[in-house]
Amino acid sequence: MTSPRSEQWVPRLFAVVVVLLPLQFWFARMRGEPYPALLLPAFDQVATDADGRVVAESVAIVVRFADGTVEPLPLRTLFARAPSSHILAMAQIALKPKPPPPAASKHSRPREWLEAYVAPGLALSTARRLDWSGPDPETVSWLRRRVHELFPGRQASRIEVEWYVDRYAWQADGWARQRDRTVTLEVPL
Amino acid sequence: MSRGALPRWIFEEYRLGDESLAVSRVLTALCLLGLVYPRYVWLASFPSSFYAPPLGLGILFRGLPPLWILWAILAAAVTLTLALLVGWHTRVTGLALAAVLLAGNTFEYALGKINHDILLLVVLVTMSFSGWGRRYSVDERRGAGLPPAAAWPLALLALVVGFAMFSAGLPKAMAGWLDPRTQSAQYHLLVNYYVLERPTLAGRLALDYLPTAGWEALDWATVGLELAFLPAAFSRRAMLAVCGVAVLFHVLIHATMEISFWSNLLAYAMFVDWAAILSRARLDGVSTGLAGLSRTRGWHVFAAGGMASILYGAVDPMLSRVRMVVDIDRVRFSMAMLAAGAVVAFAAGRAVVERWLSRGLDAGESAPGLDRHPLVLFDGVCGMCNRTVDFVLAHDRGAVFRFAALQSTAGQAALARHRLPPDYSDSIVLIVGGRYYRYSTAALEIVRRLGPPWSMLWALAVVPPPIRDVVYDFVTARRYRWFGKLDQCRLPTAAERERFVS
Fold this sequence. Notes:
The structure holds two protein chains of two kinds.
Chain A: H1 4-31, E1 54-65, E2 70-72, H2 75-78, H3 84-94, H4 109-118, H5 120-129, H6 137-150, E3 156-171, E4 174-188
Antiparallel strand pairs in A: 1-2, 1-3, 3-4
Chain B: H1 5-11, H2 18-36, H3 67-86, H4 90-108, H5 118-127, H6 138-142, H7 152-175, H8 184-195, H9 201-209, H10 212-232, H11 236-257, H12 262-269, H13 274-280, H14 284-291, H15 298-323, H16 328-357, E1 375-378, H17 383-395, E2 402-405, H18 409-417, E3 429-432, E4 435-438, H19 439-448, H20 465-477, H21 479-483
């Protein structure tokens, strides 16, 4: 049974939803995906190079110790507390040097006011995703603690985060990978 | 007054019974308790330098909240989920749970990755208005103030699911998924397999053996399926068909890439008429078990919520050790999929086998009251059958069974209703609702309803009916010789009279 009242407001609710859904889709395409948003992942990035090889980014981490030894540190181990869905994205945020930002661009005054008083996370997010200026001191001390936990009793001297572009091509005996290092972050511990 | 097509779709197309909606509610809560928690407390292991929120509520904060707030969010979510499970103030509980999960997700998705489980929140919000707390719930026991059941929330959910899938399909089509020169599904599988280190056996086989044409067909099928949801939303039957295909699609994705879209599967589950499926699969015990939820008290919810929160919080750090070796979240999802698959296979297999082998089992019209009171038809002149009736009367503590001799007027009418011959006397017959059971299946269905310890004999149902019926036939063929034959049908005593249908 539906009440006469719901007969009136429910169709209006549907009308609002029908208008809002395309709007937020358009907003996400223009400004990046917000949260929350009624969107599902598009998986629309399909990267191939001129030779048709599949191109993907990957990362490898090693720890160098004072005695000269080197240990690999898988991302899954370093970020063991985080769900697997997050670990690559977290590494990209905190452990990947980005190209220098273009010539200093000044935000508009309303945006500056917004970032200063209402939405501090907006400036932080932009800085960490785009305007890289070296690893955050908080990240460095976290890395130091984490390496100490994972390699107790050993003196680590530094951690190296190596970023690669991998190119995969199908050959007669299976998939072949060509790995090119793009950037390395060295963090003294 | 007849409605136009649009109002009819909004208010009538997705109408489901209270039982089906209640099963959806229980599924939602169990999915959260089994697959989703513990969440949020892991964030306290990372510094705020990882905090990079997307546009949304997250930009209002400078960094991650302290551990006690994350604990509070987890405890509130777990307690509200338990309240949802038992249907305690169901509408408010569902909406509050959506709000709490939104708060937790806002922080969790501020670390560079949005997990696309938004449909869970949509399910909670829309279904809170559907009346999914009207059955198998504390609200049902309390009675007063139950919100009416409504079909429009399911239509709204269908519309949102349709659009959400469209939002995934359209960018794919625009980005070249349909271009025969690129094999996008293959690209994503490669990245999952090598870069994200999810080396599945199915993924390996696909990468090594699927030809280019197969990958291209997968690209087209993916885009086609995702775009099909939106038009399908305007018909429940079409939506169910598309959801069914999508379930296979998600199983394939999980097997090859270990990407588990559990919130999508949960959203599809809302459109299913669970009551019909449980009835068809003869899983009456599920309904009986769910009915027990209504006996829960409010303080049970809070006590269990507190204990479960502590348990989840304690388990969370241990999971990190497991995560270094295996991806525990994927393992949990795989186990849930296997369990669900096993239940479906069991129910489907049992229904098919019983339909084949139960010698004329058929659905007919049920007589009034027989859903609540199964009717036992017995041979009134058979000594063994009369002793069986005495046994059932003595152990039927809930007085649920009604009885009629096959030779009585009521017995003859019941036989006719189920198209059995009037001189039928091969076995006892049990009529439950529109179904009837005969031979050993009838005997087992009777003991099953007697409660423990007799109901434990129901375990014998695993023996295929043809085998157990050999034993049954052997005894019944000799029943007059062994237990005697009466000259006339048994007459109920005064105390038994209300249990016998005349």
